[in-house]
Amino acid sequence: MQYVTPDLCDAYPDLVQVVEPMFSNFGGRDSFGGEIVTVKCFEDNSRVKEQVELDGTGKVMVVDGGGSLRHALLGDMLAEKAARNGWEGIIIYGCIRDVDVIAQTELGVQALATHPRKSEKRGLGDLNVPVTFCGVTFRPGEYVYADNNGILVSPEPLKMPD
């Protein structure tokens, strides 16, 4: 499904929240949306690795990495696994790596920046808790939509206007 966030903003002005514009699109899909699944972690992508193993059909993983620019929380192997397991996309409030491969992967990926250093694996992090960054709270079970124009959050699923 192709989402156009300006059209969604126009159609649902009182429903959507707009995430502050800090993210760049890195994935093979430049438009994606779905039900929010959250991961809260800091410089440890253990929970991200666990989640990409699960069926992500119709879902977008929102990772609150605390905005860290010191480690990548997603690389090519996890992105490819997420794509194979049906995830619509991953939004990372932090960094990713292996961007040339991720750009060829059938997955939406938005992040703050890139960093070549992998994250630590200490098994730390929280799943499906509300996370807040860039002026918006992402709640599990709500919906997120992203494209090259930005990222929107809605308490309910949205349909593209005709």
TrEMBL record:
Which reactions appear under catalytic activity for this entry?
A: 4-hydroxy-4-methyl-2-oxoglutarate = 2 pyruvate; oxaloacetate + H(+) = pyruvate + CO2
What are this entry's molecular-function GO terms? 4-hydroxy-4-methyl-2-oxoglutarate aldolase activity; metal ion binding; oxaloacetate decarboxylase activity; ribonuclease inhibitor activity
**What role is this protein assigned?**
Catalyzes the aldol cleavage of 4-hydroxy-4-methyl-2-oxoglutarate (HMG) into 2 molecules of pyruvate. Also contains a secondary oxaloacetate (OAA) decarboxylase activity due to the common pyruvate enolate transition state formed following C-C bond cleavage in the retro-aldol and decarboxylation reactions.
Q: What is this protein called?
A: 4-hydroxy-4-methyl-2-oxoglutarate aldolase
* Binding annotation for substrate: 75-78, 97
* One GO BP: regulation of RNA metabolic process
Binding of Mg(2+), residues: 98
Is Cell wall biogenesis/degradation one of the keywords? Answer: no
Similarity comment: family membership:
Belongs to the class II aldolase/RraA-like family.
Q: What CDD domains does the record point to? A: RraA_family
Q: Return the PANTHER family for the record.
A: 4-HYDROXY-4-METHYL-2-OXOGLUTARATE ALDOLASE 3-RELATED (PTHR33254), REGULATOR OF RIBONUCLEASE ACTIVITY A (PTHR33254:SF29)
Oligomeric and partner information = Homotrimer.
- EC numbers listed for it are 4.1.1.112, 4.1.3.17
Q: Which UniProt keywords apply?
A: Lyase, Magnesium, Metal-binding
A Pfam family recorded for this sequence:
RraA-like
Q: Which organism is it from?
A: Stutzerimonas nosocomialis
**Cofactor(s) this protein cannot do without:** a divalent metal cation; Mg(2+)
